[in-house]
Amino acid sequence: MLVTSLPRSLDPLPDESLSGYVLRLSHRLTLPPGWLMRHTWIGSLNAHGLLASNSALAIALPKDVTTRVALTTRLHPDEVAALTLACWNGRYPPITRALESKAGGRRRAGDWLFRSAARFCPECLAGDGSLIQQQHGGPWKKTWRLPVVFACLEHRRYLRHWCPGCHQAPDASTGSRLVARVGDAGLHPAQCRNSPQPTEGRKRADPACGTRLDQPIVADPTPLSQDILSLQARILRHLSPDIPQREASEYFTDLQLVAALIVMTWPEALHLIPHSAGMITDRYLRHLAA
Predict the structure, then answer these.
(1) 3 CB neighbour count, 10 Å cutoff
(2) Residue closest to 137 by CA, chosen among 8, 6, 236, 19
(3) pLDDT for residue 48
(4) Could you list the residue range(s) of the whole structural domain that residue 285 is in?
């Protein structure tokens, strides 16, 4: 198989997701993400001549696609595989189940896996100040795709789940695709790629929302307590090799069961939760019940 390597590439950032890497590299190449996805086999043309790329590829890539991406981007296959959630197979049960279950040859993401990077930390997206991250932004992180990750320990803040411009989740236009608006070449990786909400007079060719999601927040209305930070740190530790795989798997299974019990019996557990987190939980569950 003859594969032409790209003239320029990028080193993956720590915890970077596959979709985030595609956005950063296509931005560096000043090419639409769709061109890069087709060139690396992450995407392919469907029967209608449109680029198709399933969001389940964020969980794991087929071996031939991993090889193609590695050769094209001059990365090691292990670096390519590390962009997916498969690195937590056997440790985080929803990923294990997604890898084991297929429908029509495609993996399905369960309720405890976000189909795309639905939450984010603006400061992380802004980058670490290095030249490459000043130009192309910081990472869209894999951990943000896990519902058990709700805070950024480095910046001591809850993750955001909406775009301040269009007031939608930043992946609302993605659907079952890995990346939204794959034909747009001019968007920065930290810009919202949502299409305008359908209204009379709007066309599919209308530009994306385009709001920068990497702008710092002057004041977070819900500061994190040390208890919440400690809980998030404990959860993240179970994703690391520091904890035996079986112990981690049992921990996350127990976490799912406890969460289900809290939801079913709410507000019986309200007094067990720190005040600020309890109020957030109460608002969320009342919203779901409405």
Answers:
(1) 13
(2) 19
(3) 63
(4) 244-289
CB 209 within 8 A of CB 192: yes
Structure-token match 């709700």, residue found:
150
Number of neighbouring beta carbons within 10 Å of residue 271: 8
Residue 163 pLDDT exceeds 90: yes
Are 36 and 26 in contact, with CB atoms under 8 Å apart?
yes
- For 259-284, the pLDDT digits (tens) are 999 999 999 999 888 887 888 889 98
Say whether pLDDT at 160 is over 90: yes
Specify if 143 maps to a domain: no
Q: 19 in a domain, yes or no? A: no
Residue 267 sits at the vertex; the CA angle it makes with 262 and 271, to the nearest 5 degrees, is: 90
Side-chain half-sphere CA neighbours of 211 within 13 A: 18
pLDDT in tens, 187-197: 999 999 998 77
Distance CA 30, CA 40 (A): 16
Across the strands, what pairs with 44? 52
User: Measured between alpha carbons, how far is 123 from 212 in angstroms, rounded to an integer?
Assistant: 12
Helix (H) or strand (E) holding 289: helix 275-289
213 touches 163 (CB < 8 A): yes
The count of structural domains within the chain is 1
How far, in Å, CA of 200 to CA of 203, rounded?
9
Are the C-beta atoms of residues 20 and 189 closer than 8 Å to each other? yes
Q: 45 lies in a domain? A: no
Q: Give the DSSP letter string of 194-225.
A: PPPPP-TT--TTSPP---BS-PPPS--SSPPP
259: three-class secondary structure by DSSP: helix
